[in-house]
Amino acid sequence: MKVVTEIAEIREQLAGLPTPLSLVPTMGALHAGHRALLQRARDLVSPSGAVAVSIFVNPIQFDRPEDLRAYPRSLEGDLEICRDLGVDLVVAPEKKSLYHPDHSTLVTESLLTRHLCGATRPGHFDGVLTIVLKLFNLFQPAFAVFGDKDFQQLALIRRMVRDLNLATAVVGYPTVRETNGLAMSSRNIRLTPVQRADASRIQRSLKAARDLIATGECRPEVFLQSARTHLLTGAPDEFAIDYLELVDPENLQPVAKVRPGVLIATACYYGEVRLIDHLVIKP
Ligand code: PAF
């Protein structure tokens, strides 16, 4: 497995890799959810292709400097996981290799970013789409694999690929969960053990709201009130809801009526640690 940090080296290494290429873009602090993405990436190109991973904590997608500072970093452990899973190339650049000092071009999407994280994290998705486009340009991967957990991010990347005629096939992978139902995230290690156990309330609350569909209920405010009550009942003092919304899964706009297929999504804080999760409403 090759590990490179400079753009010139990346291009050189890529030229020597077999095709097709699967790319898994990450910000490191790899966990079981990433392992599943890497396995999917390998399956997509087996037996002859190659798998590349990027590890880069992309500063321009952080809307709060303290969040960027506190983002977990564990390069040695990440490399071990990549080695273990037979990754061919790891690219772990510094900011200066990827962004020119007076970098001034951003990718902006103007519809799917209006709600959910797009509304509460200004500029976040400009940063995500910009780095993903840069990575797609650099790697020219046949496939790129992302977790469904970041539902809005995945929808936006698909939209960008469609709107900008990119050639990469974007592949989503179902959310991997801890045994208590908490969605796996690199941020989970910043929770205390008590918070980590408590955070099962997020998925539980979304499920409790979802189950209202079986009663014939279709008013969004009733679903949202149910989820809000479950989220807040017995929650620790440092717990707060950032947003809780019901949106159409295609355009991510709020719905007037809840029907099967609609998405209920939330972002919550335990102190400074922000967690996201969602659920598709099904009968
Ligand atoms: O999901 C992530 O880890 C990041 O947002 C991504 C897609 C690697 C872009 O920095």
Please supply descriptive tags for the structure shown above.
283 residues; alpha/beta; Rossmann fold; 3-stranded antiparallel sheet; 11 helices; 19% strand; globular
List the helices and strands and how they pair.
Elements: E1 2-4, H1 7-15, E2 21-26, H2 32-45, E3 50-55, H3 65-70, H4 75-84, E4 89-91, H5 95-98, H6 117-120, H7 124-139, E5 143-147, H8 151-163, E6 169-173, H9 193-198, H10 200-210, H11 220-232, E7 239-247, E8 263-270, E9 273-280
Parallel strand pairs: 1-4, 2-3, 2-5, 3-4, 5-6
Antiparallel strand pairs: 7-8, 8-9
This protein binds pantoate.
Pantoate binds next to strand 2 and helix 7.
Would you kindly provide a written description of the structure presented here, covering whatever features stand out?
The model has no long low-confidence stretch (mean pLDDT 97). The protein has eleven helices and nine strands. It folds into two domains: 2-173, 3-Layer(aba) Sandwich (Rossmann fold); 186-278, Pantoate-beta-alanine ligase, C-terminal domain (Pantoate--beta-alanine Ligase, Chain: A,domain 2, 2-Layer Sandwich). The strands form two sheets. A six-stranded parallel sheet has the order 1-4-3-2-5-6, with helices on both faces. Strands 7-8-9 form a three-stranded antiparallel sheet, with helices on one face. It has helices spanning 7-15, 32-45, 65-70, 75-84, 95-98, 117-120, 124-139, 151-163, 193-198, 200-210, 220-232; strands spanning 2-4, 21-26, 50-55, 89-91, 143-147, 169-173, 239-247, 263-270, 273-280. 37% of the residues are buried. Helix 7 (124-139) packs across helix 8 and helix 10 runs antiparallel to helix 11 (220-232). The chain has 283 residues and is of the alpha/beta class. The chain binds pantoate (PAF). Pantoate is lined by residues 25-27, 58, 61, 128, 131-132, 150, 153.
